[in-house]
Write a sequence for this structure.
């Protein structure tokens, strides 16, 4: 049996810690194929990816990943449990038999995930605090520090999905080396601080030559959406609950997205939760669009090397892949096409039509 290893990533941006992670997987496990399910142009915290999905997929392949498949927007911009649900489901469809992820500590993830699946039935939301705070406290009471070790939370959620769905995947972990932080790299780059010692040359070159998109670029579009829609219309947006549409309308007069976010934030809602909601509002995303992706998930290829191409050819016997957007794919990809069109508004770079996966060794 082939050893097909898979992991989940955002590569926002791809840095030296990711390279060490990939190298260690290869040295420790000797996979026949290494697959990454990667978020597209938007990331879990409700933000724009610092580089577009095509550049990040190319950099990943150039640094050792054999095949990169996109995690659809409907899963990529969600809390940890739904993010993990979509990612692990795609890995299963790619016939990955070894799930691997990074962690800060040597935790028995299968035991903890099994325990948490049983305990989750007892989880109750304390409406004096936000969901993330309640969940963090719930895990803490069960002996798991997801605040001090955030990768543990994702790891537990990945393993819960494997157990819950009886996926045929062995669980493997890599202890994270060093303290390279993608958040810190993004901040340093924004502040003009040198990051050359933290990222490979391919990432550094892309960052220097690309337009870096942030919420500040899109805030005028968000402001227009909120000002031009009635409260009942805004209420239809996915995850717009408990009168948040009225709060959005009340606070949208601020001059910057960060000021707007600060004015809306409360004990009930984290910044990540509100950034995600702001993205849904910006793109006019409805629950039925999210549900459509959940009901009919797809596999979209962003990049591969020769090993990845050979593996795709094997999988084609049982699975369908999107490698180019044509008439048949427009309905399937409708939500992602809409989301990507917002990015194109800012940097004028096509994200879908005419785009084909990066293949290492070919122009």
């Amino acid at each position: 049996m082939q050893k097909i290893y898979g992991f989940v990533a955002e590569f926002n941006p791809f840095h030296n810690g990711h390279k060490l992670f990939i190298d260690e997987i290869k040295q420790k496990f000797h996979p026949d194929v290494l697959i990454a399910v990667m978020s597209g142009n938007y990331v879990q915290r409700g933000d724009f990816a610092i580089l577009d999905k095509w550049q990040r997929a190319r950099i990943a392949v150039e640094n050792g990943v054999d095949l990169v498949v996109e995690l659809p927007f409907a899963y990529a911009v969600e809390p940890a449990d739904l993010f993990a649900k979509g990612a692990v489901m795609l890995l299963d469809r790619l016939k990955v038999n070894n799930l691997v992820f990074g962690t800060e500590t040597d935790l028995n993830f299968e035991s903890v995930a099994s325990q948490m699946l049983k305990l989750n039935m007892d989880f109750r939301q304390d409406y004096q605090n936000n969901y993330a705070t309640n969940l963090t406290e719930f895990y803490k009471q069960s002996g798991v520090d997801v605040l001090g070790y955030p990768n543990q939370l994702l790891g537990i959620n990945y393993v819960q999905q494997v157990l819950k769905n009886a996926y045929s995947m062995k669980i493997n972990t890599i202890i994270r080396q060093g303290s390279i932080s993608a958040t810190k790299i993004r901040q340093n780059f924004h502040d003009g601080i040198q990051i050359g010692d933290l990222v490979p040359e391919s990432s550094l070159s892309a960052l220097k030559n690309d337009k870096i998109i942030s919420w500040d670029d899109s805030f005028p579009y968000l402001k227009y959406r909120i000002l031009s829609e009635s409260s009942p219309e805004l209420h239809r947006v996915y995850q717009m609950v408990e009168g948040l549409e009225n709060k959005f309308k009340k606070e949208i007069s601020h001059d910057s997205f960060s000021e707007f976010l600060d004015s809306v934030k409360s004990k009930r809602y984290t910044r990540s939760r509100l950034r995600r909601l702001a993205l849904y509002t910006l793109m006019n995303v409805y629950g039925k669009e999210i549900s459509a992706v959940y009901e009919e998930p797809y596999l979209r290829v962003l990049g591969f090397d020769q090993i990845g191409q050979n593996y795709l050819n094997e999988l084609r016997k049982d699975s369908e892949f999107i490698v180019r957007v044509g008439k048949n794919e427009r309905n399937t990809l409708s939500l992602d096409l809409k989301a990507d069109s917002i990015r194109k508004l800012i940097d004028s770079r096509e994200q879908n039509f005419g785009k084909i996966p990066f293949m290492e060794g070919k122009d």
In short: The domain at 4-210+296-331+350-359 is CATH 3.40.50.620 (Rossmann fold). The chain is about 50% helix and 10% strand.
